[in-house]
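$ ./design --mode recover --in tokens.txt
reading tokens...
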């Protein structure tokens, strides 16, 4: 199979039928073998009924349903788990991403050897606040990751199949997929300018919480990617430094008391500073030690998947 198209959706009943027709037309024109994975992330507007209808009309369209809203990262993760295509394309379900970009994205991966090709919405049709916050996060992510992409959060991306099988997407980490791929060893990351259309149906899911979560996730992905498998290198280092500073202060105060007969040490702020430094240093060192044990012995927890005769797949919580 040439291409798997993974499409997370949440309350997009008006657009998914038109989107699937558009995708099918592009695939047939280019004679691609393909599958479309529609990941219904707990929609409540009839989207799942539309997905079932589409899957019955076209065997290349498959449906995945979450019983509640888990978020875009969870939806992508399940889509990646099921994707069988040589190249995996992701796009949003709101018709702002153009399926006409798929052939060129596919060629960049297969012919030019890119591990990931990220879309760049050079001309965006989004609210002003969303454009400004996105520009800030793209700048910050470039500085942290040293990946020269203009639009990390563009939903339209192409991946080699082995890339999406090698990385784990969770929380709100979908916007940092190129960063996680780079730290997993896939460094050939390209970019392509893509068309961005105004939203035709429904309303944007952007809110203030995404701004806050985006900043926290940037800190999280930076820490986890660098120290997730070796937490002692971070906590142990700072714990040792703090403890040695506290120990040096304690040694200085002991010297003062023994040789200079300075009393009432507990009334001096330096005494409490040294005590605090040793306590914090010990706690950080212990946190690093426990984190090291957990990282070496933890097992991943996954949801289980149930498929019925119609090819519709249902995702449930792990029992």
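writing sequence...
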């Amino acid at each position: 199979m040439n291409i798997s198209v993974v499409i997370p959706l949440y309350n997009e009943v008006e657009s998914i039928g038109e989107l699937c027709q558009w995708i099918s037309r592009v695939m047939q024109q280019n004679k691609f073998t393909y599958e479309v994975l529609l990941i219904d992330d707990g929609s409540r507007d009839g989207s799942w009924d539309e997905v079932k209808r589409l899957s019955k009309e076209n065997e290349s369209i498959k449906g995945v349903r979450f019983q509640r809203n888990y978020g875009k990262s969870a939806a992508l993760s399940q889509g990646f788990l099921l994707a069988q295509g040589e190249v995996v394309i992701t796009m949003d379900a709101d018709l702002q991403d153009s399926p006409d970009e798929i052939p060129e994205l596919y060629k960049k991966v297969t012919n030019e050897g890119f591990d990931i090709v990220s879309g760049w919405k050079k001309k965006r049709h989004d609210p002003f606040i969303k454009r400004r916050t996105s520009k800030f996060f793209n700048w910050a992510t470039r500085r942290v990751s040293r990946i020269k992409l203009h639009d990390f959060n563009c939903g339209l991306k192409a991946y080699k199949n082995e890339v999406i099988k090698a990385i784990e997407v969770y929380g709100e980490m979908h916007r940092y997929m190129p960063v996680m791929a780079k730290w997993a060893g896939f460094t050939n990351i390209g970019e392509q300018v893509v068309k961005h259309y105004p939203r035709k149906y429904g309303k944007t899911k952007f809110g203030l919480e995404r701004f806050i979560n985006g900043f926290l996730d940037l800190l999280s992905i930076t820490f986890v990617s660098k120290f997730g498998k070796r937490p002692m290198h971070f906590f142990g280092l700072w714990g040792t430094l703090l403890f040695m500073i506290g120990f040096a202060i304690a040694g200085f105060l002991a010297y003062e008391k023994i040789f200079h007969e300075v009393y009432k040490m507990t009334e001096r702020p330096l005494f409490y500073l040294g005590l605090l430094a040793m306590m914090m240093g010990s706690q950080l060192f212990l946190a690093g030690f426990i984190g090291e044990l957990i990282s070496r012995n933890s097992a991943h927890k996954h949801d289980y998947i149930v498929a019925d005769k119609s090819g519709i797949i249902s995702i449930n919580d792990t029992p």
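exit 0
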